[in-house]
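Internal ticket - ligand job 330, tryptophanyl-5'AMP:
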Amino acid sequence: MKRVLSGIQPTSDSFHLGNYLGAVKQWVELQDGHDAFYCIVDLHALTVETDPALLRKRTLVSAAQLLALGISPEKSTLFVQSQVPQHNQLGWIMECMTGFGEASRMTQFKDKSSKAGADSARVGLFTYPMLQAADILLYQPHYVPVGEDQRQHIELTRDLAGRFNARYGQTFQIPEAYILKTAAKINDIQEPTAKMSKSSGSGAGVIEIMDTPEANLKKIKSAVTDAGREVKFDVVEKPGISNLLTIHSALSGRTISDLENEFAGKGYGDFKTAVAEVVVEYLRPIRAKAVELLEDEKHLLDILHQGSAKARVVAQETVNATYKNLGVVL
Ligand code: TYM
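stdout (structure tokens):
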């Protein structure tokens, strides 16, 4: 069975629709027929200022959401990054394999550090992609299901794995990014040319899984639309409508052209009402399930501890092989 690995940061009280459609939906599909490892990357969350009570809460909320969205602990290994110290061990090796200039070219680092200001950005933000490379390579996966914004990090991971293998002998599987064409980038529904993101300004354009159905209904009904009145997929001329078509299609399973036909001759208002219904009804049972799971913290922790124990075994094998090939005395 081919292996799959991916990760998600616990940096918010809720995942958003971009996280789900760009990544987690594929995680759920891939757990059938693959040996799947999914990680809540809490160490990555430390690259920005965090409140201890919030980090804990958000790690548990992340686990509850992943389970509610369909990750099954019987099929997948669901674990917390900090409970597998091998991530830090291999992270250091990856830092030692990476050029300073190479790391400086990571676009997420450039964006985030320019927002924070070069002096207040943390060194951890700079070395973040090397820790991510370690997250991946430890598990020797074939595929890494992510959204488009992670493509460059996966490319770096592939480069580092290839470099290490060439220099020290075959050690790492070279992983492939698994990025869907259709939902690789879900946009903010208030600012449809920008990515839907946890850190976006007001949050009015971000559909959150843990939001109430009423709040999400209101948000979608106030989504920004475009000039004209035709419901047509055209990313350049109609970024707002195209984004809503993508969301509807991904959740309802209907094709974009089928939706265009249904709404031919109808206005944007009718279309937004339909999108709102699809989203709200899809998320309603998921939010309810996550809320229920959060009531039993011990059960959640048991699942995570079991997952982390399984992950440590696999991760240690890779650390051993890496150290051996590096000439570290074992
Ligand atoms: P994170 O936590 O920001 O996002 C988790 C996943 O959601 C995807 N995503 C989106 N997809 C489509 N449209 C959007 N608007 C959107 N916003 C987010 C992301 O591409 C990602 O797949 N660096 C990673 C976490 C990470 C990781 C890893 C991923 C750490 N180690 C190892 C894979 C493998 C991140 O910050 O994702």
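Auto-summary: The radius of gyration is 21 Å. The longest helix spans residues 297-326.
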